[in-house]
What we know:
Layout: H1 8-25, H2 28-44, H3 48-65, H4 69-89, H5 97-118, H6 121-135, H7 140-160, H8 163-172, H9 176-260
Helix pairs in contact: 1-2, 2-3, 2-4, 3-4, 4-5, 4-6, 5-6, 6-7
Amino acid sequence: NSVRQGRYPEAIGYARQVYDLDMESGDEERISMSLNTLAGLYISARQPQEAEKALTTAIDYFREHGGQQQSLAISLNQRGKARLALALNADGTGATKSQLTEQAKADFREAAELLAEMGDRYGEMHARQGLYECLYQTEPDSARLEMDRFLLLRDSLYDMASAESLARYNAEFGNDFLQEEITAERSARQRIVTGIVVGLVLLCMAIVVLLRYMRRYRRKQQQRMRQLMELIETNREKTAPEASAEQNGQQEQPQQEERQE
């Protein structure tokens, strides 16, 4: 609650008390969690110098006791972030900006190597991103290689697409770019579906118009045929009396000739 309300000093005080208790217990896993929690609070409170101190204590502890490679790599990543923030501010430890950047680069590189050996794609991707941020101004070619590796890891995470991996990635690093890709893919599918539906609607409309045109054409043809038949019948009725009269005239002419003889 203190963190959500922005009361970082209070939250940091609680976290330090937890760390002291964990140190007394000697539980390495709990010490790792409490130190990283404390460092995360310092980073959120924009106190990278204090975060670096806490993480250096954690890293020294893990190196001394061994067997905590995962915790060591996470702490190295966190300390790289803190040192990069100090480099941007160019204050905190008295070291120059370039020295702080080199120290951050060393932390990220060691973390990337450890996480790659363990097959932790999430952590390695985070370390590669840190390396890119350290290198892009002074070593652009090396920075490009780190970005390529980052993109490969990102794509592999996207292909996994499991609920557990996406939830973990979102919790640790955020998955805004994954959401953008998913949204773009969904939009493309929606456009395809919309195009198909519109095409089907237009096809149906064309069929309806064609059927109506055929019906009208058929009715006109039938009407023309009826008119033609009526005209033929009318002509027949007119020519029938004339033909009959002509035939009668032809029959009467021989009779008159016989009478004259």
